[in-house]
């Protein structure tokens, strides 16, 4: 008998429905629905027990499903043999651990944003978490690697990973897509020391930001956050995404398919002193774009990459190689791949305190999560006419890399 509950009432049974896997591979090969997956134990310490309403899919998840051997997962998870994918969620607090405390002195649903991009994690303690609170967030990295994911009806999460859903301008489906992509974009714009977009503005000139891949989860966030921070934004996408990318505030949209190869196009149109970029923010991970960037990226600019669409192992190797490209170029070793520009590969560790910065922006109408499609939790196959699409169809779309913004799974009604 599997768990059922409404609103914030605790589950009536010890089992629940979850998508699980026991081996390494692509989602359609390894995922199946399990109606008897154990419900997490009651929350202890600072944990929250959450009834999940929505989750959003993240490319990092299907990449690691395929890349991480099962023995590694078993090791990280302390011996588990069945795993749940995904890390982002929105849902409703069912119960709280004994150390979550009563923060009822707070009057706001979300705390004020901090101008410090590394906002103090204690910030979260100003948020009220109690049964019935609508929340969103992202699991900590060890849970992701250990396969204690969110594609399930109930989860237990440290409260430091969680943020209250803004009181206006945001649905639960949108909330599920805010943390991962939003905080990655935030980090690209604000957390590389010496290269923050607002630092450039303070020096008197407007930052000129080029976004490679403006229509995906990270790209749609980057455009809005860069515009909110005063940048001039040029972004790529395919023709079908042009209207969306424009509507988010992009100043110039480039169709990367019609203008291929992109590095040559940029060299032709963006190499003058007034058109060169201060930041190239790559959500795709295009090696050729970096190798040619000296002609369209200012010498004091930065190339920041989070993408791995050319392959995860290649990307990891290149990250190391590219970080030294500037040194090679300056020591006269350009012939072995030197590029006289600064390259940074970054990742982010989402937490509730930082998510509160984005939640506040949403509440104020300055940021929105673009949701491409909301699919069902139970449907396993498309019925062929676009209705009844489920989890596996959603993964197929992710793998085909044709999602605009975020793709969300509705697990149960809020
Ligand atoms: N989402 C996160 O939380 C997160 C966090 C950290 C790192 N990352 C990494 O960042 C990368 C991007 O993630 P994401 O969530 O933004 O991916 P995504 O949403 O799956 O990106 C899909 C989009 O990529 C566009 N695209 C595909 N090839 C392109 C190309 N050559 N040039 C420009 N656009 C292209 C497609 O746009 P068109 O249809 O317009 O072509 C599609 O809309 C991934 O490698 C991911 O692992 C993501």
Automatic annotation (TrEMBL):
SUPFAM superfamilies per the UniProt record, alphabetical: GroES-like, NAD(P)-binding Rossmann-fold domains
Region (Disordered): 100-123
UniProt biased composition (Low complexity): 100-117
Organism domain of life: Eukaryota
Gene3D superfamilies to which the protein is assigned, alphabetical: Medium-chain alcohol dehydrogenases, catalytic domain, NAD(P)-binding Rossmann-like Domain
GO MF annotations, alphabetized: oxidoreductase activity
Domain Enoyl reductase (ER): 28-409
Classification via CDD domains: MDR1
InterPro entries, alphabetized: ADH-like_C, ER, GroES-like_sf, NAD(P)-bd_dom_sf, YIM1/Zinc_Alcohol_DH_Fams
A Gene Ontology cellular-component term: mitochondrion
PANTHER family with a match to the protein in the record: ALCOHOL DEHYDROGENASE RELATED, RETICULON-4-INTERACTING PROTEIN 1, MITOCHONDRIAL
Annotated protein name in UniProt: Enoyl reductase (ER) domain-containing protein
Source organism (scientific name): Tetrapyrgos nigripes
């Amino acid at each position: 008998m599997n768990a059922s509950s409404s609103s914030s009432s605790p589950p009536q049974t010890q089992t629940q429905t979850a998508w699980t896997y026991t081996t390494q591979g692509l989602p359609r090969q390894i995922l199946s629905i399990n109606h008897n997956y154990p419900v997490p134990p009651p929350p202890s310490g600072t944990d929250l027990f959450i009834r999940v309403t929505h989750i959003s899919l993240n490319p990092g998840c299907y990449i690691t499903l395929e890349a991480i051997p099962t023995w590694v997962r078993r090791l990280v998870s302390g011996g588990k043999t069945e795993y749940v994918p995904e890390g982002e969620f929105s849902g409703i607090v069912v119960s709280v651990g004994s150390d979550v405390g009563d923060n009822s002195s707070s009057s706001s649903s979300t705390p004020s944003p901090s101008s410090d991009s590394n906002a103090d994690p204690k910030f979260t303690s100003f948020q009220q978490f109690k049964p019935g609170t609508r929340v969103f967030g992202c699991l900590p990295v060890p849970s992701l690697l250990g396969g204690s994911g969110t594609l399930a009806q109930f989860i237990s999460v440290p409260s430091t990973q969680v943020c209250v859903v803004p009181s206006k301008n945001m649905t639960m489906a949108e909330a599920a897509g805010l943390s991962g992509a939003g905080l990655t974009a935030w980090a690209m714009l604000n957390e590389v020391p010496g290269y923050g977009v607002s630092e450039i503005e303070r020096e008197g000139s407007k930052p000129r930001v080029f976004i490679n891949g403006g229509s995906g989860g990270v790209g749609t966030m980057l455009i809005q956050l860069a515009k909110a921070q005063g940048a001039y934004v040029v972004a790529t996408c395919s023709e079908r995404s042009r209207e969306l990318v424009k509507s988010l505030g992009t100043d110039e949209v480039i169709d990367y398919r019609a203008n291929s190869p992109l590095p040559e196009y940029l060299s032709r149109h963006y190499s003058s002193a007034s058109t060169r970029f201060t930041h190239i923010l790559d959500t795709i991970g295009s090696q050729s774009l970096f190798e040619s960037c000296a002609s369209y990226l200012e010498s004091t600019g930065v190339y920041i990459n989070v993408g791995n669409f050319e392959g995860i192992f290649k990307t990891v190797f290149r990250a190391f190689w590219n970080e030294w490209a500037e040194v090679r170029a300056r020591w006269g070793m350009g012939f072995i791949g030197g590029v006289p520009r600064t390259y940074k590969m970054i990742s982010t560790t989402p937490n509730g305190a930082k998510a509160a910065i984005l939640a506040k922006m949403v509440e104020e109408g300055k940021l929105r999560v673009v949701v491409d499609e909301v699919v069902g939790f139970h449907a396993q196959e498309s019925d062929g006419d676009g209705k009844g699409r489920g989890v596996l169809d959603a993964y197929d779309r992710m793998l085909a890399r044709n999602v605009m913004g975020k793709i969300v799974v509705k697990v149960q009604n809020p």
